[in-house]
Amino acid sequence: MTKNESFIEVKFNTPFKIKAGVSTRIGGESTGPYSSFNLGKSSGEDLDPVTKNRKVYADWFGKKPEQLVVAFQCHGNQIESVTKPGEFKDVDGFMTQTPDLPLNVSIADCFPVWFHDCVTGWIAVTHCGWRGVANGIHKLQIQKLIETGSKLENIQVVIGPGIRLCHFEVGGEVGEFFPLKFIRESETIGKFFVDLPGTIRQDLLELGIWQKNIEDMDRCTYCEPDFFYSYRRDGGVTGRMMAGIVIQGTSDQ
Ligand SMILES: [Zn+2]
User: Fold this and answer.
1) Which residues neighbour 221 within 8 Å (Cβ) at sequence distance 6 or greater?
2) Assigned domain for 199 exists
3) Which among 241, 252, 246, 249 has a CA at the least distance from the CA of 54?
4) Å from CA of 46 to ligand 1 middle
5) Is 2 within the bounds of a domain?
6) Distance of CA 230 from the midpoint of ligand 1 (Å)
């Protein structure tokens, strides 16, 4: 936890200078259901406070909003390897080895998952909702890191805040995509609770990521209304948080 409650910082055990974290809903300009650090341009809120909030967010990385890599996500499993800032369509994950290029995804129940190879220096962040997890975006991310020369034992993973087993209730049409081990029956007939971070962790372990290199923040967006937006809890009228990661270069650009 940083002093500033607008961000939760993510730490890696690495010789590289990595800054990573996720925003909370605290300390911004937005009001009403979007109060107060809404970063979602298509959340339904007026763009003025969102634009101001995005400046504060970018500044956390020592950047201006136009220097960020951001996504128009689509709950798919497209991962883009990037070398320049910009807004990318239909992308749910970014990776780079370029310093001073913050990669970002937006979330409000879906899990941000950060990846870092402490030998090659590659970084990545993916947006993992149930569709993304069912499609294996987290596994694809590992595969893509391997293609850059990563060794499994050097990859560190952090699973951020999202809607967890306690609150992620779905119908059978969603539940069927997940292993029984990560499903709990609901008291409502035909409904199930799904453990997305459990599924992500298990899949990564099966791929060969070391247990000690997978960290789970263990925080549920639905459970903490003072701290996080939750699309599910707030009935869709809510803000968006952003999760980002950057390799901090030595230049002072
Ligand atoms: Zn919960």
Assistant:
1) 107, 108, 109, 161, 162, 163, 228, 229, 230, 233
2) yes
3) 241
4) 29
5) no
6) 10
| Residue 217 and residue 205 in contact, taking contact as beta carbons nearer than 8 Å | no
CATH number of the domain where residue 57 is located: 3.60.140.10
**Backbone dihedral angles phi then psi of residue 83, each to the nearest 5 degrees:** -130, -5
Q: How confident is the model at residue 74 (pLDDT cuts 50, 70, 90)?
A: confident
pLDDT of residue 1: 40
Ligand 1 centroid from CA 222, angstroms: 5
CA of 194 to the centre of ligand 1 (A): 11
Residue 156 CA to residue 204 CA, distance in Å, equals: 11
The Å distance, Cα 112 to ligand 1 centre, comes to 16
pLDDT tens, position by position, 123-148: 999 999 999 999 999 999 999 999 99
Say how many domains are in the chain.
Answer: 1
| Ligand 1 centre distance from Cα of residue 216 (Å) | 14
Task: Write out pLDDT tens, residues 185-209.
Answer: 999 999 999 999 999 999 999 999 9
Domain that holds residue 237: 7-247
* Cut 0.85: pTM above it: yes
Domain-embedded: residue 253? no
> How many A from CA of 207 to the centre of ligand 1?
28
Tell me the CA–centroid distance for residue 184 and ligand 1, in Å: 14
In a domain, 252, yes or no: no
